[in-house]
Design goal:
The chain has seven helices and 17 strands. 33% of the residues are buried. α1 crosses α4 and α5 packs across α7. The chain has 428 residues and is an alpha+beta fold. A hairpin with a 5-residue loop joins β13 and β14. The strands form two sheets. Strands 1, 2, 3, 4, 5, 6, 7, 11, 12, 13, 14, 15, 16 and 17 form a 14-stranded mixed β-sheet that branches. It has a three-stranded antiparallel β-sheet with strand order 8-9-10.
Length: 428
């Protein structure tokens, strides 16, 4: 019976591909680079770096601009009775570096291998076929016994770019698998690449003295945990030796770069019970500068910038230097114009949780497009402009690494469009 049900499940499979790809302004299908999503060069005959690094003195120090696209895939499998038994999804990032396309290709090939490992189950998440077999067994058991059990298995992997510049690009993957019971299985995974060579970076490759470098990481972790009285007391009460436990988490897959330093993290349940929180430790670059290769340290930023949103139809031809085009959904064509310089520009879908007054939360659900920096240029966006609560978030950081949030919305004045700040209640 199980073989018959597996065959029926294959026939009942519903496959949906959720990506950013869409149609260009002329109504023709856009050719997304590397099939990565819906962002395409606005003018393939022009120089995509026009108005960016070439126009400001500090652009050369930042290195070449890194652009990141994402593609979301979701596969839904139904049982013979038409009910869903498995939802399997993943987000794949794609890197674009116009000045070094061969480097971007090398990075993307390695990212493809991570995707294949997640699908096949050669990683730690079990893989699609294994989960489908387990979901089938579960369906058969419920069908034959009438047990009141969870019927839908899920596996989801998302990704967030944590740092991208002329030296490195660093990603943090999050995987969540639920097959019933309480909680499910969750894991983080960090991976970084050299944006000059395309090579995967390891802890040993970050320093001319790798052992001294890793020792410094452990010493900083110990200091951070000692400052966290609750965590240090929990570890002591559980009989965990702090030094050996923290030395053990300084390993490949459990670190990534962000704008402030190197982030080290344990596996879930490794330092404390899963239901008591998940610690992440940031070792600042200043604590490691004497041991790290200088090329992997972030450069100083300068300059400032601001954002403006305008409809394409309201802009005179030739007056906007658009470096790319992003299709979020069928909607209006707009230019996101940058005056001056902004960093870490992200276009994302999000959801909003109003927990308590003054403690609102904006959670990125899907990253559509990222640029390490933009200077006096624009991004063309095709999206629906909501007349109520915004659903598209635009974030960027300034020269002081301070994040700013903006949300696409109607202005309320003659059907205009505008960017509102994160006092989002005013437009909700």
């Amino acid at each position: 019976m199980k073989k018959i049900l597996c065959a029926l499940l294959c026939l009942c499979m519903v496959f949906s591909l959720c990506a950013c790809a869409g149609q260009d302004a002329s109504g023709q299908q856009s050719a997304a680079p590397d099939d990565a999503g819906g962002a395409v060069p606005a003018d393939k005959d022009g120089d995509p770096s026009d108005g960016a690094a070439s126009t400001v003195s500090h652009g050369a120090e930042l290195g070449d601009r890194v652009i990141i696209y994402t593609k979301k895939t979701q596969e839904t499998y139904n049982g013979p009775d038409g009910s869903v038994i498995l939802v399997f999804s993943y987000v794949t990032p794609r890197v674009r570096i116009d000045e070094r396309a061969e480097v971007a290709d090398k990075i993307n090939e390695q990212l493809n291998l991570l995707e294949e490992a997640y699908i096949s189950g050669s990683g730690d998440e079990g893989g699609r076929n294994h989960l489908l077999e387990s979901a089938t067994d579960n369906f058969v058991y419920i069908y034959e016994t009438g047990a009141d059990l969870n019927k839908v298995f899920t596996s989801a992997r998302t990704v967030r770019s944590m740092r991208a510049d002329g030296s490195v690009v660093s990603f943090r993957f999050w995987t969540s698998v639920y097959t019933g019971g309480v909680g499910g299985k969750h894991s983080y995974f960090g991976i970084s690449y050299d944006t000059q060579t395309g090579e995967k970076l390891t802890l040993d490759s970050l320093s001319p003295e790798p052992e001294a470098f890793k020792k410094a990481l452990v010493e900083n972790l110990i200091a951070l945990v000692r400052e966290d009285i609750i965590l240090s007391e929990e570890m002591s009460a559980s009989g965990i030796d702090m030094e050996s436990a923290l030395a053990a988490i300084v390993r490949e897959g459990n670190w990534y770069f962000d704008t402030d330093g190197i982030v080290i993290f344990p596996d879930f349940g490794e330092l404390r019970p899963e239901d008591e929180g998940f610690p992440m430790f940031t070792v600042p670059y200043s604590a490691l500068a004497d041991l790290m290769y200088e090329r992997y340290l972030p450069v100083d930023r300068d300059g400032s910038g601001s954002l403006e949103i305008v409809r394409v139809k309201d802009v005179q031809d030739g007056t906007v230097a658009s470096i790319d085009r992003l299709v979020v959904s069928d909607g209006e064509e707009m230019y996101l114009k940058i005056d001056g310089t902004v960093y870490d520009l992200r276009i994302s879908s999000f959801y909003y949780v109003d927990q308590v007054e003054g403690d609102e939360r904006f959670y990125e659900t899907d990253l559509h497009w990222y640029a390490s920096f933009m200077t006096d240029c624009a991004l063309q966006i095709c999206a629906v402009v909501p007349n109520g609560m915004p659903d598209l978030m635009i974030t960027y950081t300034d020269q002081d690494n301070v994040m700013h949030r903006r949300f696409l919305s109607e202005s309320g004045e003659n059907g205009g469009i505008t960017l509102v700040d994160d006092t989002i209640k005013a437009v909700g």
